[in-house]
Design a protein that fits this description.
single chain; alpha/beta; UDP-N-acetylmuramoyl-L-alanine:D-glutamate ligase; 9-stranded mixed sheet; 5-stranded mixed sheet; 13 helices
Length: 432
């Protein structure tokens, strides 16, 4: 387990004795520290097209269009023949998150979902596997006879983006393919709200089965909300799911507004903390907010400049560490905020994946806490049943840095870990 943040040594616990067994690519619950994610497996395709192309295939411009599999195949084949496709990316908000986690932690994670039983060269499944870290354990995926999902982003000369979504078999995950022992031994279980809208599809029941298993074994449950439109359409179902199962909720400011009806991210976070234990809100050029609970007896005052906005002195206790609300004798809401790292990249081509990157940093810190507690149970770091290894403020810095790297790479997934030394960048950042 590579520990989060800047460290003098690459691994916090260097191993001096040779390991008695060969390394395993498959997760072993009794030995490994890992997270589990459940996702609608999908590949993102980017292509340049003309307005005539959209008209020919009766695709409304500028909208997200759900199309039949056969029609999507025709469109896709014509794009290939026209050499219009510029990129294939492994997609899915949870797929992105656990890939990034494995890159950051240099450790294992488990993906649950479906995968084509027969993977052909150039197929959606081929591109998905090709762009996913080898440390992501895919041995528990359910094989299907068809394809995984495909999302085609078609860009016209005026820069307008039009989306074609082909679900194919991505929602066919059955509850029988939920490995209870793998979830029970995880440091965290992460899922998005998307399967909640998959009415009458097996993946919805599979997700609920996984949530019940994680809850029964006290595995922290993390949920990403997806899109504002999804939240608006399924608000009550999402709120009830959060209240019943979820410990950490991640969203952007638009999704937070749709969930709470409050425009201000701080006010939204305060309201959501009545349902859950910790909240991540990414707010674009405004930066990100990380809010949660700690016990009055464990609160720590910040030495950073105190900030006031819609809540006075809201970051006063951001040096505290997150805790589950039920573990607090006297729970205290804690709020932390950070502006974009180095002011953000000079040029942002694509914001896809920035929130997933921030969430992967939080999961890495939670997994580090799980690992440290296993190997050093008597450490002062575990005098309280903390949810994460670092303070709210420190996790904010880490999540912010990972989001920056995603934006710089202009991709939805990290291609490499963060640089080992960033002294000059850090000094420039804190002098701003």
């Amino acid at each position: 387990m590579k520990f989060p943040g800047l460290r003098k040594i690459k691994h916090y616990f260097p191993v001096s004795q040779p390991k008695p067994q060969l390394p395993s690519f498959e997760v072993r619950p009794e030995l490994d520290t890992y997270i589990v994610g459940l996702d609608q497996t999908i590949v993102d395709v980017v292509a340049s097209v003309s307005d005539e192309f959209l008209t020919k295939h009766a695709i409304p411009k500028g909208l997200s269009n759900l199309v039949a599999h056969d029609k999507a195949n025709i469109i896709y084949q014509e794009l290939i023949n026209n050499q219009a496709i510029s990129d294939h990316f492994a997609g899915g908000t949870i797929g992105n998150t656990i890939h990034n986690y494995s890159v950051l932690a240099d450790d294992k994670s488990v993906l649950l979902g479906v995968m084509s039983a027969n993977i052909a060269l150039g197929s959606p499944a081929y591109h998905y596997v090709r762009h996913t870290s080898s440390k992501v354990d895919m041995n528990h995926l359910q094989g299907v006879s068809g394809d995984i999902g495909r999302g085609i982003t078609m860009i016209t000369p005026d820069g307008e983006r039009t989306f074609v979504i082909d679900p194919s078999d991505m929602d066919e995950l059955c509850p029988d393919y939920i490995p209870n022992d793998i979830i029970a031994g995880a440091a965290a279980f992460v899922v998005s709200a998307y399967p909640l809208r998959a009415t009458d599809k097996p993946i919805q029941q599979a997700m609920l089965t996984a949530l019940e298993t994680a809850k029964a074994h006290n595995v922290p449950i993390v949920m990403s909300l997806g899109t504002r439109h999804l939240v608006e359409e399924n608000r009550e179902l999402i709120l009830s799911t959060i209240k019943k199962y979820v410990n950490v909720v991640a969203m952007n400011e638009l999704e937070a507004e749709a969930l709470t009806g409050l425009v201000d991210p701080l006010q939204s976070a305060a309201a959501i903390l009545d349902y859950t234990d910790m909240v991540l809100i990414t707010a674009g050029p405004e930066g990100l907010y990380l809010c949660g609970h700690t016990d009055e007896s464990a609160k720590r005052e910040s030495s950073n400049p105190i900030k006031s906005a819609s809540l006075a002195d809201f970051n006063q206790y951001e040096f505290s560490r997150p805790m589950l609300r039920r573990e607090c004798t006297n729970p205290l809401k804690v709020f932390s905020h950070i502006s974009p790292y180095l002011g953000g990249p000079e040029r942002i081509k694509n914001t896809n994946g920035a929130g997933d990157g921030a969430l992967s940093a939080i999961l890495h810190d939670m997994a580090a806490n799980h690992f440290h507690k296993q190997v050093q149970p008597l450490s002062g770091k575990h005098e309280q049943p903390y949810l994460a290894y670092s303070s709210f403020a420190q996790i904010c810095k880490y999540a912010n840095r990972v989001s920056y790297e995603i934006l710089v790479e202009n991709a939805s997934r990290l291609s490499k870990g963060l640089p080992e030394r960033e002294d000059v960048l850090e000094e420039a950042y804190w002098e701003r």
